[in-house]
Specification:
By secondary structure, the protein is an alpha/beta fold. Helices cover 50% and strands 10% of the residues. The protein has a six-stranded parallel beta sheet with strand order 3-2-6-7-1-8, sandwiched between helices. A six-stranded parallel beta sheet has the order 9-16-15-10-14-11. β12 (453-454) and β13 (459-460) form a beta hairpin. The protein starts with a helix and ends with a helix.
């Protein structure tokens, strides 16, 4: 280990010290932070006096697992939190001190925190009349995307610390295109102000209000600083570049008050820009620290891959021409182009089999794609299972309804509550029976519904109504499982209904746990129940009667609300036997995982370069770094897209030790041609090597 890094890790507790660890590899810096933490704890510093700030919850979980292995005893419990988690804790603790000044109508009432699901739901309820009036007419997006972009605007304003009244003016001032967009921005302003007014009136805190109340009101209080600085004497921060500006502000204020601080950052990252991350802010924090230690990635980085990334960057007008020993061609093991996407997936699977046969451990292989839609995930899963390749699908925020077990639970919930008015199609119910009565094929599920389901009353009939021939077709084993489910639902319908999360817990424990579950199903059930519980607790403040809560929760999920938490919180480091399909690419980059071989899919796709269609917001205009006099021109847009693509390529290459395989098909699943900037840049670089 470098001597300067060793010094930073082992710096004495008797003198104030702050150090910035600069370097691209997350893993190396994270290990240094863990070692520093161990030094502090072993020196007798209690865990409650150490603040560990992390960019996201999954990182905090990994850190807690690492600390558990150290067996540090009863005083080893450390506060490892995200900025949002810390802000929420402090607001709860100091609520009487800030509620009034923050503008809440009833400051004597305790706060109610809204997760992302509930914020979407509430926004949808509040703006429904506006949508019916014609708001956002002509915007070709799913309603849930509209809700997400409205909330994004609020969150970005709070993350950069400017008033929500500035949102529409900022967006409008930067826009140079069709003037119809300006009308959309005005409508955005009306929607977000209606949402904010309601939250203040009801004591509700979404993410934007958590940031704003903490940063503008609580941090200004002397009482807060007296408590905070007396408690926390040492600070460790991982991946500073992935934090929002107001988090950087807090860290900057904490630095001179702490006995020691160790910060890790990479100016070339900042992959969470879509969540408000501010990589430039980490550079400013570097200058505030007493010392900077460069964490040299060279020993663990493949020089060929690094040279390849820099050459791609040069083609994109970014980066610098590499002058090291690396060979671009040696970075790319193979480039395969197929006609159809399904062929590409088959080729990928065969290549993985070959790697495993050569002795490469499955966990040393990572498959990354710019976007893993449902079709891609399904095709990959089916292909991998057929070839007996161990794999794991890593996802970030997803729609709850995309999980079959979630749809099953909610369909059965609708059956069990005859007063609910939720729509329930025969397709929904057939899928639910397939899941609940495993193993059951679609044909027999449809036969059961045809003969044993009464649509008007939404009631399952007893199997005694089946004739002998139909009973034989369905099978005795299935009939027995069906009758158990029917009797359970029928018994429940005769009682007073329970809260939705209570019902879901009983449904799983008494009925569905008997089915042949997939390995991840129990985890999904658990997170569904947690989601329903959080909704129930916040529902009264959102104006819902107790009898309506379950019905509204089912509507919310089935409408396509994005989950507030990871449905698959899978840690690559904890699964050496698995192959990971990681999408979007950002998920893999933020994991910090280093693979021997990476397989990049769909490199011709515009999704590597082109962000999602977001007519109601702008990730860059709504940042602290944006110059209010600047305009969002095509040239600015083009430059930012190229810069982000270069960062993706560089980040991937720094997380690969031996080589990359590149794949594309002539057309995507939607039939679109695959000739995006990444493909063109790769082809140019590889042609130079011939």
């Amino acid at each position: 280990m470098d001597s300067d890094l060793t010094k930073a890790i082992n710096s004495p507790l008797t003198e104030k010290y702050s150090c910035f660890l600069s370097g691209p590899l997350v893993g190396a810096k994270r290990q240094a932070l863990i070692e520093r933490l161990q030094v502090l704890l072993e020196s007798g510093m209690p865990g409650y006096a150490i603040l560990v700030l992390l960019p996201e919850r999954s990182t905090a979980r990994r850190l807690r697992q690492e600390l558990a292995r150290l067996e540090l005893g009863p005083y080893g419990a450390v506060d490892s939190v995200t900025y949002y988690g810390l802000a929420s804790q402090m607001i709860q603790l100091f609520w009487p001190l800030v509620a009034g000044s923050a503008g809440f109508a009833a400051p004597e009432r305790p706060p109610v925190f809204l997760n992302y699901e509930m914020a979407q739901y509430l926004m949808g309820r509040l703006i429904k009349p506006l949508l019916e009036e014609g708001y956002f007419e002509g915007v070709v997006m799913r309603p849930q995307r509209i809700l997400s972009q409205l909330l994004d605007n609020l969150n970005k304003a709070a993350a950069s610390d400017f008033a929500i009244a500035e949102l529409a003016p900022r967006l409008s001032q930067a826009w140079v295109g069709d003037e119809s967009r300006l009308r959309l921005y005005e409508q955005v302003q009306v929607c977000i102000e209606r949402f904010r007014k309601y939250c203040l009136a009801q004591g509700l805190l979404d993410a934007s209000l958590v940031f704003e109340v903490f940063n503008r009101h609580l941090v200004a209080k002397e009482e807060f600083w007296r408590y905070f600085t007396e408690r926390y004497r040492h600070m460790l921060v991982d991946s500073v570049e992935e934090f929002v500006p107001v988090a950087h502000d807090l860290i900057r204020r904490l630095l001179p008050r702490c006995d020691s601080a160790l910060l890790g950052g990479d100016l070339g990252a900042g992959f969470r820009i879509f969540l408000g991350a501010d990589a430039s802010g980490s550079g400013e924090l570097q200058h505030v620290c007493q010392e900077t230690v460069e964490v040299d990635p060279t020993p663990s980085v493949n020089s060929h891959l690094l040279a390849f990334a820099e050459r791609i960057g040069e083609k994109l007008g970014q980066g610098i021409r590499p002058d090291g020993p690396g060979s671009y061609r040696k970075a790319v093991v193979d480039l395969v182009q197929t006609r159809y996407r399904s062929q590409m997936i088959d080729v990928v699977a065969r290549q993985i089999v070959q790697l495993i046969d050569r002795g490469v451990a499955p966990g040393e292989i990572a498959v990354v794609a710019p976007h893993a839609d449902g079709v891609l995930r399904f095709q990959m899963a089916e292909t991998f299972r057929a070839l007996e390749i161990p794999f794991a699908v890593i996802r970030r925020y997803e729609m709850l309804r995309e999980e079959p077990v979630v749809r099953t639970c909610l369909a059965l919930a609708v059956l069990a509550h005859p007063k609910w008015t939720n729509k329930l199609s025969l397709f929904d119910l057939s899928e639910a029976l397939e899941q609940a009565l495993k193993p059951l094929d679609p044909l027999r599920a449809k036969l059961i519904l045809r003969h044993l389901y009464e649509p008007r009353s939404r009631q399952l009939k007893a199997v005694s109504e089946l004739n002998t021939h139909m009973s034989d077709r369905i099978g005795q084993a299935v009939i027995e499982r069906y009758e158990t489910l029917r009797e359970w639902i029928d018994s429940y319908r005769k009682r007073d209904p329970e809260p939705c999360d209570y019902f879901l817990r009983r449904l799983f424990g008494e009925v569905l746990s008997r089915a042949e579950l997939e390995p991840d199903d129990a985890q999904v059930y658990s997170k569904l129940i947690a989601s329903a519980s959080a909704f129930r607790q916040a529902a009264p403040a959102m104006g819902l009667k107790s009898s309506e809560i379950g019905q509204h929760y089912a509507d919310m999920v089935l409408s396509g609300i994005v989950a507030a938490q990871y449905l698959t919180d899978f840690d690559l480091e904890d699964a050496p036997e698995s192959i990971a399909l990681v999408a979007p690419v950002y998920t893999y980059l933020l994991s910090g995982h280093v693979a021997r071989y990476q397989l990049w899919l769909d490199i011709g796709s515009m999704n590597w370069w082109e962000p999602l269609h977001q007519p109601l917001t702008n990730h860059y205009v709504l940042t602290r770094r944006w110059n209010r006099d600047e305009r969002w021109t095509n040239a600015v847009d083009f430059s930012i897209r190229n810069r982000n693509l270069y960062r993706l390529v560089r980040g991937l290459c720094l997380r690969c030790s031996e080589g990359i395989y590149l794949y594309s098909s002539d057309s995507q699943g939607r039939g679109e041609s695959q000739d995006g900037p990444l493909m063109m840049s790769v082809q140019e670089v590889l042609q130079e090597c011939q």
